[in-house]
Amino acid sequence: MAGADSDDSLYPIAVLIDELRNEDVQLRLNSIKKLSTIALALGVERTRTELLPFLTDTIYDEDEVLLALAEQLGNFTMLVGGPEYVHCLLPPLESLATVEETVVRDKAVESLRKISHEHSPVDLEVHFEPLVKRLASGDWFTSRTSACGLFSVCYPRVSSTVKAEIRQHFRTLCSDDTPMVRRAAASKLGEFAKVLELEYVKSDIISLFTALASDEQDSVRLLAVEAGVSIATLLPQEDLEALVMPTLRQAAEDKSWRVRYMVADKFSDLQKAVGPEITKNDLVPAFQNLLKDCEAEVRAAAANKVKEFCENLPEDSRETIIMTHILPCVKELVSDTNQHVKSALASVIMGLSTILGKDNTIEHLLPLFLAQLKDECPEVRLNIISNLDCVNEVIGIRQLSQSLLPAIVELAEDAKWRVRLAIIEYMPLLAGQLGVEFFDEKLNSLCMAWLVDHVYAIREAATCNLMKLVEKFGAEWAQNTIVPKVLGMANDPNYLHRMTTLFCINALSEVCGQEITTKHMLPVVFKMSNDQVANVRFNVAKSLQKIGPVLDSNCLQTEVKPVLEKLASDQDMDVKYFAQEAISGEFCNCCSRVLCNFAKTKVSNPKRYSLSKLRLCHAPLKRLVLTRPHISTSLCGNISIMPPKCSRKERRRGFSNRSNVEAAMSDRRCVFQCESKSTLFGLPEVDARARERARERERARESESFPTSKGRYISIKACQHILLHQIHKIMIFKKASYDPFKLKN
Amino acid sequence: SALAMSSAATTPPSVDKVDGFSRKSVRKAKQKRSQSSSQFRSQGKPIELTPLPLLKDVSAQEQPELFLKKLQQCCAVFDFMDTLSDLKMKEYKRSTLNELVDYVTVSRGYLTEQAYPEVVKMVSYNIFRTLPPSESNEFDPEEDEPTLEASWPHLQLVYEFFIRFLESQEFQPSIAKKYIDQKFVLQLLELFDSEDPRERDYLKTVLHRIYGKFLGLRAFIRKQINNIFLRFVYETEHFNGVAELLEILGSIINGFALPLKAEHKQFLVKVLIPLHTVRSLSLFHAQLAYCIVQFLEKDPALTEPVIRGLLKFWPKTCSQKEVMFLGELEEILDVIEPTQFVKIQEPLFKQISRCVSSPHFQVAERALYYWNNEYIMSLIEENSNVILPIMFTSLYRISKEHWNPAIVALVYNVLKAFMEMNSTLFDELTSTYKSDRQREKKKEKEREELWKRLEDLELKRSLQSDGIIPT
């Protein structure tokens, strides 16, 4: 077992198989998850002749292990030698497709479907199709269930005799004795119909569909509904009435609510599939019945579809149908006894206004909106409020504002904090639609009241809400209306209120800009650094760190730094800690707009950071680029390295002593600069002078233009030691799906 | 309900005197669960039944005819969610049903051939219905109150009547089998999903009687129960009547002829054993364990597959279930034959050794209680040379480091018992304990190195295939 290099014989199959047999399930599972590594070590031939037979034989294991195995085998084509040999994978997958556990079987079927495409037409007939047949005629129901999912992938690519056999097998499974198999067949019926020639859809599928749709078990019947929708899309219009509609009509009136629920749930698809004429004659009355169904579940599902159904009605008769047939039912649902029904309706009812136009909305819909705004169930009211924009476009929100306000106030004071949280989230939207005057007059006080809510989540959301409002209404508005109130809370006897002031300042400083921050907020923060409660003091330190980027450097040096230094010698341990954090954060990196929030890994060296967890605090990191000298662009999930500028000599040594780590966010870029004497990313402790130099360099570089130019060069905090080894790994594993030069917003 | 729960869960512990936040949200008193009835399609108009004379008031010849008429009247189904509608008629139907119950119990000669279809029709009209959706989103039978059937005042009497009918001396299965057929049984089985425990209890009796009297339906009933269980285990994890069905099966298994048919063995291995995986095991575990033990008493050769099955599905995260498994295992060990014990002792005691060292003291305690069982003790003693090495490591370690003193005390007892059983082996194991641990550690290290090499290899290969490193 000595020697690490690539000689395959160094990895005797026995050792590897021992790993796959390890007594500890967790270890066995880990080994299976790395099956591709094992296969790679063995090489394609031995994988085929030794590993796969072993896997086929020892299929008796924990389901979790089997699941991992089934998944792995789906990606094994290259490891057994490419498409030419892909059929080697069939035996183990066949066994997996017969196990009891549904998730394992489903995964095996998924993998089989995947590799079916890699079979040549010949191999498909020689190897794959016989497997499907074996499964389809298996003794135990599990193999037959699995077979149902495989017909559609091989059907299009086999000869017509084989096709006939496949159809026959499918037919048999549709009338299987076991309901589990019939359910599987029913759920794949639509998919299978899609690959069949139209004549067979008519001759075979329709009769299967009719039979399944009148199965004695409702769990089978309901699956047939979905198949019916797919089949309807395949058939020419003139056949629909005779072939599909009788069955679908019957499903809409099934005695089991589950089937009716399914019809309601698929109603929009159904409507699109059958076209306008049948919709007018059949679906409209069916939909009315579903809206009036005796089970609330069915009514709620139908209510959810009201808007979509109305939208998709044929234009010539849309308004009449809605006004005479749908609206009366909708009116009844507004006062339904079940709150889920009402709230389902409330989530879509506003959408009707765009369809019906201004006059109808005012005359018929507005009373319904108003009634729902007063509903006893908060979810109903919330759903109405969250969709206000639809109405706003048609009649303007003013029509509603009289009723809106009490509804908002009531939700704002609801006993359940989640309801309060939900309404806070709509505030910026409402503010935008109602305008600044209305807002100042009626809603501002609410927003301020949330700041002193007794639930932290509400206070947190309230601060965030203020920030969004300022983004909408501007810094001047903030200075006049909310900033004084927020700052006033700094004198509150309750320390939680005082902390809320700090949280607000954190959120507002950037949107309010440097002037307001420096002039109005900073003095308050300074004052609070003398607070008697330690929690307030260390939050002052955190705040100073957060608002630092907004302040100019002079202010940072002359005003902020002394305060932080004072806090750094505080009695309280936490205050000290956060003050020191802030000092090092601000003054080492000079720019703290983007702080590297390295998750510390538990290693002997406490200042070592795990690369995979590298991420920036606040803003989600879109891109961070790191590059090794001789790899021009290397890619990884969150990190890659920019081509460093280094000398040829350095390059020959394999390391550069300077390279850039670029972090790009949606709207700005930040570039960290790494320095190293010995290793690429390991930095020796930087002394004060080096830090000074680094800062000078940055200032010099600030003028250098970068595409979005807002970024600043900053040197990565000394001693962030990133192992080259780890970078390799990430590069390789995430390579396929990641493009570092494509900036997503 | 999610909202209600979360508002209760947000109560922070009061941290500080300065906290001036009064907690405003006071949880509302829990609303009483309203009774839900099964689906009812109201016909819109009130039901009118013409009152008939009492059966005892007419002559014997007229009785069969009147009996039929009364059965027909009882086919009318009332809406019990509407508590105010049809009050008089509901009362009339109730008294008629009562009368019918008494009549089938005491009368003789009433069961004409024409009566069979009418009885089955009346029962079908009343009991067969699509069960309503569960009130709570995820009905937890352990936590939630069951939704009771609103039409119970009538339904109970219909069930009562049907059972008396099936048990009546005059009842002739040869005639009834035309009407009580596969379809009837299928619908009956679906009703076992009812949330109302009273209804499930009646259904249990009904199905049991049918199984007893209709030989032709037996295989069908077993197969359908199979299907229900398989669906329960692998598809829905939801079915209210599992315990009741298992109870019936317990008595069915009891009556199996020997040697057991392959079908029955398959049922044990492919259906009953996987039932252990279900989350709500606690609701039917007693019945399930009873069925399993019944099987083993019939055919001891099944012990090995059963125990292997249990070990395969051994709970990994749910300690409560683990305790149940241990309980069931003890029941099995109580009836195990020594020859069978030898076959499975190794995997079995590996698991027991893991349980004994469980940080959850109830699991450890339950496993250690095995040593109080005389029969198990005798089996262990006979095989101490195999079992002791398996158990020793965990026992030794726990005796040093388990947090719960009660467990440590129990472990000392077990170690003492082992010492008395086989002192030579015990001493040997004690002396090699340290070197064994070191060997294990070394092996572990070798494993790690192997994988590291494998990964390096993979890394290199992919770099090669990407052309980053020259081949």
Automatic annotation (TrEMBL), chain A:
Residues 276-357 form the Phosphatase PP2A regulatory subunit A/Splicing factor 3B subunit 1-like HEAT repeat domain. It comes from the Eukaryota. Residues 89-270 form the Phosphatase 2A Regulatory Subunit A helical domain. SUPFAM superfamilies: ARM repeat. GO terms for cellular component: cytosol; nucleus; protein phosphatase type 2A complex. HEAT repeats lie at residues 12-50, 166-204, 205-243, 244-282, 283-320, 326-364, 365-403, 404-442, 482-520, 521-559. Keywords: Repeat. One of its GO terms (molecular function) is protein phosphatase regulator activity. PANTHER family: PROTEIN PHOSPHATASE 2 (FORMERLY 2A), REGULATORY SUBUNIT A, BETA ISOFORM-RELATED, SERINE/THREONINE-PROTEIN PHOSPHATASE PP2A 65 KDA REGULATORY SUBUNIT. Belongs to the phosphatase 2A regulatory subunit A family. This is Serine/threonine-protein phosphatase 2A 65 kDa regulatory subunit A beta isoform.
From TrEMBL, chain B:
Pfam families: B56. Residues 24-33 have a biased composition (Basic residues). It comes from the Eukaryota. GO terms for biological process: signal transduction. Residues 1-43 are annotated as: Disordered. Belongs to the phosphatase 2A regulatory subunit B56 family. This is Serine/threonine protein phosphatase 2A regulatory subunit. GO terms for cellular component: cytosol; nucleus; protein phosphatase type 2A complex. Residues 34-43 have a biased composition (Low complexity). One of its GO terms (molecular function) is protein phosphatase activator activity. It comes from Sinocyclocheilus anshuiensis.
